[in-house]
Amino acid sequence: MITGEAARIKHLLRRAAFGCRSGEWAHWASLGEKGTLNALVDYNSTPTHIPDLATDSFGGLVAPNDTDSLKRYWLYRFCETPRPLEEVMTLFWHDHFATSDYKVQNPSIEYRQNQLLRKHALGDFREILGKIAVDPAMLVWLDGNNSTKKAPNENFSRELLELFTMGVDGGYTEHDVKEGAKSFTGWSYDYDRYKVNFNSKNYNEEPKHYLGESGNFSLDQTLDIVVQQPSTAKFIAKKLFEFFVHDNPPAEELDRLSEIYFRNRYSIRELVRGVLSSPHFFSDEAAFSRVKSPVQYCVMMVKTLDVPYSWIGDMQSYADNMGQQLFNPPNVKGWKQGRNWINTNTMTARLNFAKHAVDQLRYRGLAKDRITAGLAMSHINADHSFKTADSAIEDVWDWLLPSMKLEPETRQILKDYMHEAAPKKPNPDYYWNRAPGLVELILTAPEYQLA
Amino acid sequence: MSGSTRREFLQNGMSFVAMGIGMPALFMEAAHASTARSLSALGIPAVPSDKILVLVEFSGGNDGLNTVIPHTNPAYQKLRPKIGIRKQDVVQIDGNLGLHPQMKPLMQLYEKGHLGVVTGVGYPNPNYSHFESSDIWQLADPAHQLKDRVGWVARYFNEDGHLKSNPLSGLTLTGNMPLAFNAEDIAASVYVQGQEDPFTSTNKDKEYQARLAARRTMYSQGTVANNHLDFIRKVGQHAYTNTADIRTALTNYDKKANKAAKYPQYNGLAESLESVAKLIVGGLSTRVYYVSVGGFDTHANQPGQHGNLLGGIAQSIVAFFTDLESQGRDKDVVLMSFSEFGRRAEENDSAGTDHGTASVMFVAGGAIKGGVHGAYPSLTDLKDGDLKFTTDFRRVYANILDGWLGSNSEKVLGAKYDPLGLV
Question: Cα–chain-centroid distance for residue A299?
């Protein structure tokens, strides 16, 4: 179990906010565990100053015709938003309704989908489904754009059930896929006029037999049937639990969460609140059980070191090399999580990014400043810490990896590094000179890959 | 070798003793010095490098019916009035079958007898989900009998002590580890060019070197626990040892030799295969390479997209073997393509095709017995509009495992499959 309020809040922030800057900590600590959870979830009451893509320019950050700029813009939002859960949930939905640039090839409608997901990130799941079914990027991606009365295209109908709602074992059949496809006919995206059109002449009005019900269902009625399925509730609850807690949700927990889904009319806000307040949230099985996704890894690093986004440059190319190209997931199933993030190539990218982030402090002589602010979160005086290698190591480890065990071998490796060029009686200046290296070594430790 | 033994070596001031088989010895060597030498120079028997397999995944579901076309069959044009390939356009390979016109370059290999074309390839109880069907091919498990998710290539590696313990036995250039390589102890790595090395440097600054040494040591700590941390440490360590091996292989490659190859420009597969050729010729210890081409999920507007894909693939494969041949290595390499499923026999209303069943596999190499293998599926005796497969894909795997890689296909695949005669 993660015990102690400070440790528990930090765990919650790692999962739901991708970390926090040292300056924010006092605010969360004053709210306490429950207050922090509700403040994160009820973010609509937090004012936000992040400008919208269309109405602001960032000297190169914003360019709707350029996918690279889209990635940069979203990472900027992640690093600077006062509503971290809003971005985290937008990312969750981006992975869930995975739509890729390699086929859509139209950054402005990809961004439009991103805005849609953000607007409804903690909204009503039925509403999300209704909007995503006729979203331009989705129409292009799953061929809704080419689905006619005579030969309804099955792509969206299949992925709706297999990936977006009931799940592959949710109890639907091939026949349901074919029948459902009829309901999604008639839509198209007009590239020239930037408009989504519905042509009733192309709409298939045949009666449908869908998921055990019969009738001449419209698109809306079809989605009504899907969203009411118990397997839909379980599938979405399971995905959220796995995203925020750990990989093995107990059956009773999924039942409890399904009940929340139905009782609150498909409210994702209440479902997420239920997941984050799960009795399993602070369990041993949950603690540091997630391999950080590339975006989580980069954003957390930047916030922990309190580095402004603009100092980093090319964060998106590091995330790409780590295997997560925003706006371009590998396929409609999204990104494979967990250990799949870790291979020889992505490990190289992660370690290089950590060094790159710490270098930003090194170049500006700000390492001592950031460490001081970090240790102050736990009311530790940094100068006092850096009187000996042992206390420096312990306190900096505790700042960067609270609740994570420091193995004796790792402690020794860090100690050897701290003492490598030490004079007979090292003074604190000597240890402060080693401080950026100490931070970098901890940020590149195997343990730091976990959240 | 167990983690504790590794640690002992490190604590003894990295003193270096010739290791037993199966230890990534390069780690030790490179940890001590800044240059790496090949396994053989260190007195360790290298993995025999003369039988290499290159897997090419056609991702999305390749339409076999428009790739290898039964142009004399009248049912074909009836099924494909809009998107069918016209009889005068096919590149004939025998009296009844022809290749898609954009695959003409492959005839260079076909005419030499170095290209096997396997038709009607599939498996019982076809699955139409990209992900499920892809898993079936990667695990060689249509009946979902395997409880663990150990890939078929990983099971092949597991049969051999050398292969099992070499993190470079399998190498993918795709950026993600394919399920085919998946095992508890993954004997495979991912290689994507152009990244800085976080473990070694020629920068002589003492603090910097101390920092790098500390990092190398952190990643050399092994435990026997199979948790996330241990996995991350192992992969980090492999990232470190691979860099040295790959650097060596690339230095060995003679740049002048591949001028004749003419790889197509701006083509991802061509770039990957060119890298693979360099690594093979440079002497990397990898036994199975993995590359991928996407874009085959042609639900709409198939002709242009499918044609372009096939064209790039044909040119890339031919360039690859020309490259290898000019450096005397084409007989050491077999290339095998596969796809998670084919497409439906009848075209749809969007000038495309939906998910289907049986498709084709290409098997190329200097040692291959070329020609058409497997029977072409019937175009009239369909099941719910889909082709009935004639050749189980595990027969192709078994043929490669036994006849090329010298393995035991019955052990790897869990059953005996009739050989096809490809190799």
Answer: 10
Q: Backbone phi, then psi, for B33, in 5-degree steps?
A: -125, 170
Strand, coil or helix: A55: helix
C-alpha–C-alpha distance, residues B149 and A426, integer Å: 53
Tens-digit pLDDT profile for residues A367-413: 999 999 999 999 999 999 999 999 999 999 999 999 999 999 999 99
DSSP per-residue string spanning B194-257: ----SS--S---HHHHHHHHHHHHHHH---S--SHHHHHHHHHHHHHHHHHHHHHHHHHS-GGG
Which amino acid belongs to residue A163?
L
- How many CB atoms within 10 Å of residue A169? 10
Give residues with Cβ within 8 angstroms of A341, minimum separation 6: A291, A292, A293, A294, A322, A323, A324, A335
Residue numbers of chain A with a pLDDT score lower than 50: 54-59
Give B252-279 pLDDT, tens digit per residue: 776 766 777 889 999 999 999 999 999 9
DSSP states of A295-334: HHHHHHHHHHTT--HHHH--HHHHHHHTT--TT--SSTT-
Cβ atoms of A268 and A123 closer than 8 Å: yes
Chain centroid to CA A381: 33
Cβ under 8 Å to B: A residues 308-327 = 321, 323
Whole-angstrom CA distances from B142 to B74, B125, B137, B296, B392 are 32, 8, 8, 21, 10
CA distance B415 to B397: 12
Cross-chain residue pair A343–B190, CB shorter than 8 Å: yes
What is the per-residue DSSP string for B93-147? SSSS-EE-GGGGGGHHHHHTT-EEEEEEEE-SS----HHHHHHHHHHT-TT---S
Closest chain B residue by Cα to residue A353: B198
Chain B residues with CB under 8 Å of A417 CB are 210-211, 213-214
List the domain boundaries for chain B. Answer: 50-413
**Chain-chain contact of A155 with B299 (C-beta, under 8 angstroms):** yes
**Residues whose CB falls within 8 Å of the CB of residue A412, separated by 6 or more in sequence, listed in order:** none
Report the DSSP beta bridge partners of residue A195. A190
Q: Which two tokens stand for residue B374?
A: 């497997």
Chain A residue at shortest CA distance from B233 = A446
Report whether B385 contacts B346 (CB < 8 A). yes
How big is the A-B interface in CB pairs under 8 Å? 140
Cβ atoms of A121 and A96 closer than 8 Å = no
Nearest CA in chain B to A317: B195
Mutate to test the interface with A, among B149, B354, B383 (most CBs of A within 10 A): B354
pLDDT (tens digit per residue) in A131-146:
999 999 999 999 888 7
Architecture of domain B50-413: 3-Layer(aba) Sandwich (3.40)
Does A449 contact B219 at a Cβ distance shorter than 8 Å?
A: no
